[in-house]
Amino acid sequence: MADAVKKRRWMPVILGLSLALNFAVLAAVGGAAWRHNGEERGEPRTSKGGALYMKALPRESRLAIHEKTRGVGRLERGSGDMLAALRDEPFDPAAAARVLDAQRDAGLLRRDAATAAWLSEVTAMTVQERADYADRLEAMSKRGKGMSKERKARED
Q1: In this predicted model, what pLDDT tens digit does every residue of 87-118 receive, in sequence order?
Q2: I want to staple 57 with a disulfide (CB 3.0 to 4.6 A). Which of 21, 61, 103, 114 is the partner?
Q3: Quick check: helix, strand or coil at residue 142?
Q4: Segments in the chain forming alpha helices (H)
């Protein structure tokens, strides 16, 4: 009887982690589909809803930022560590938490690298280039679609 109660205590934890993993997979698949939204091949892609600062940059600047941040924050084994943690018997929630922490830390590294690269690109702009960038950013914000005039022209 005590074993049955003990096993049931782990059930919510296992179900919760399973649900979190399912959401992570859905988010990855959805993000990949959204990211590859028909933009020109070879150009770093951004989501339609976010990353407005990147979208408003000239193509050369976006490519430069992409090159500067390539490979930053990549995890060596990816989801393999989480799969191993989920398959371990007995299940170790601390091991799963360590994998999630490593994934979060990698994401923060990527964000910090992208922020530094963006700031470097904007700092290198002339006064006129920065003013043009600000105008594109403002227009894209007002339009709400996040699509530059150049990209609209390419798609037409």
Answers
A1: 999 999 999 998 888 888 888 888 898 889 99
A2: 61
A3: helix
A4: 2-35, 52-55, 59-69, 80-87, 93-123, 127-143, 149-155
